[in-house]
Amino acid sequence: MTFVGLPPRQASAGIGLRHAHYDQFTKEKQPVAWLEVHAENFLNFDTPAFKMLERIRQDYPLSLHAVNLSLGSSDGIDEDHVKRVKGLIDRLNPFIVSDHLSWGRIDGYYLNDLLPIPYTKESLDVFDSNISRIQDLLERSLLIENPSSYLQFKASEIEEADFLTTLVNRTGSSILLDVNNIYVSCCNHGWDAEAYLNAIPAALVKEIHLAGHTLQGSIRIDDHGSKVCHEVWELYQKALTAYGPVPTLIEWDTKVPELGILLAEASKAQNLLDSLRVPSNSPRKQSHVSFG
User: Could you give the count of Cα atoms lying within 13 Å of 69 in the half-sphere of its Cβ?
Assistant: First the structure.
């Protein structure tokens, strides 16, 4: 099979590289434009997994998605951890490095979760200080991902979208917009998803994430364990209309399926991205993607 991939930084669809699919990626070039991995899974360079990633990375543009920089910790940052991530960046040369609008470390202990924070001026200052220091150490800017959330703080005084936009403007970072997270949080809290999209300036959105979620009672849980649902595909199409073509990743972290299912999801996103690429003097092509 001859694969013609889009180069990094163009608006193409990728998937998260998972252990179950390593062999398929090393045996044959797969029809996907780029891959994303969790940075903290590859900080030890002497493991078979890292050596496999280095081999696969030769054929695909790569994005690093960190989960433990703990951008919102009032303790400040763990410079040793940041420097290990910098070492990984130097080895893999990813075209995007991202983490979350959350925290997960206190008193030297990592909590292995993406925990929420109240959206206040005080927490905005904490994020600003931490992200600025991390970007100095990494010598590059970060993309900050909006979280999925299941509670709201009474102390919050800023809307999430406004908080995120203000933060990235202050720090010179950009936004990784998780459309599934917007849908989950808006359903859980009664927010307006389209108003959320409209509050985010297009120029700040440099990557989009899509994933599946579950409905447990009245709460939607962002578990990354199923196909992207119809409603999130519809919201994604509205996001592309608002922001234009943006690199898009299919996330799938639990109950990881056969590679073909992930590739089909990425193909659906790619078709929507391609529908936006039309000559300026031609009518906009309508996507043939089915949301069924």
Answer: 30
How far is Cα 16 from Cα 260, in angstroms, rounded to an integer? Answer: 13
Backbone angles phi, psi at 250, to 5 degrees: -90, 115
Quick check: 145 and 98 in contact, CB under 8 A? yes
Q: Which residues pair with 145 in a beta bridge?
A: 100, 176
Separation between Cα atoms, residue 143 and residue 97, nearest integer Å: 6
> What pTM was estimated for this model as a whole?
0.91
The C-alpha atoms of residue 16 and residue 289 are separated, in whole angstroms, by: 21
Amino acid letter, residue 40? E
Distance in angstroms (rounded) separating the CA atoms of residues 199 and 162: 7
Taking alpha carbons only, the member of 59, 96, 18, 41 closest to residue 263 is 18
* DSSP conformation letters of 102-153: SEEEETTEEEEEEE-----HHHHHHHHHHHHHHHHHHTSPPEEEPPP-S---
Q: Measured between alpha carbons, how far is 91 from 44 in angstroms, rounded to an integer?
A: 12
Distance CA 94, CA 8 (A): 9
| Number of Cβ atoms within 10 Å of the Cβ of 292 | 5
- pLDDT per position as a tens digit, 172-215: 999 999 999 999 999 999 999 999 999 999 999 999 999 999 99
* Whole-number Å distance between alpha carbons of 290 and 292: 5
197's tokens: 């999209």
Low-confidence ranges of the chain (pLDDT < 70): 1-10, 278-292
